[in-house]
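Open question from group meeting: does this chain pack into something compact, or does most of it stay loose? Before anyone orders reagents, we agreed to write out a predicted structure and look at it together. Recording both the input and the output here so the notebook holds the full record.
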Amino acid sequence: MKLQIIGGGKMGEALLGGVLSTSWATPEEVAVVELSEERRAELAASYPGVATSADIDTSVDALIAVKPQYVTDVLSDLATSNVRVLSVAAGVQISAMERAATNAKVIRAMPNTPSLVGQGASAIAGGSLVEDADLNWAESILGAVGTVERVEEADLDAVTGLSGSGPAYVFHLAEAMIAAGIAEGLDPDVADRLVRQTILGAGTLLASSGDEPATLRENVTSPGGTTAAGLAVFADAGFVEIVERVVGTAADRSRELGTNS
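Structure tokens returned:
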């Protein structure tokens, strides 16, 4: 067995699908540990060959994808094991995990929900026993569902505020744009489709062009034109400052949660 994924929820399943689709592992090399019998049956049916169980194997490297309040309980089962552990649970500090599993090589990660469609942005930080090869291992798993950055653990709170929570900011912008389109007289379905495609197209262009975001913005903005008029409203409202406050507040909350873990 190459990997056990502890927690068969959406993120656990996304990472399972990622490691299988990229041939990081074969179905026979991966197991999912999940307490819900119904969920185990669903996963077994969706991923033939993948073993499912309610019990943790202390000899197999683990990816922990359970809710934060259950992480240390899971790690207590690995207390004497020297396996690699990759946790994607938000806010649970490496020190807390290492206290629960003193011999484990603990790596903490902050992924985001676009991992569900193979477009995630993740960051990782390693614990006291982690070596470069262990970080490479973690990168290879998370890289199956997106991009990965190595950071210090202290930076994971900023990552949480920026990319971890970031998809929600984009979705909120989409909500507002759709509502604005409807207010201008567009059919709701038309407004919805136009906004979804606009955000998809802009994101794809941003990711693929190599140009700075400012350059892409300027390319759309003709002096005295419609885009310039719209962006002026953002500027008057302090848009940049608002985004800084949003990300900073989310990062501060991550720090508070980590302190309590």
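Observations to bring back to the group:
The CA atoms of residues 92 and 260 lie 9 Å apart.
The chain is about 50% helix and 15% strand.
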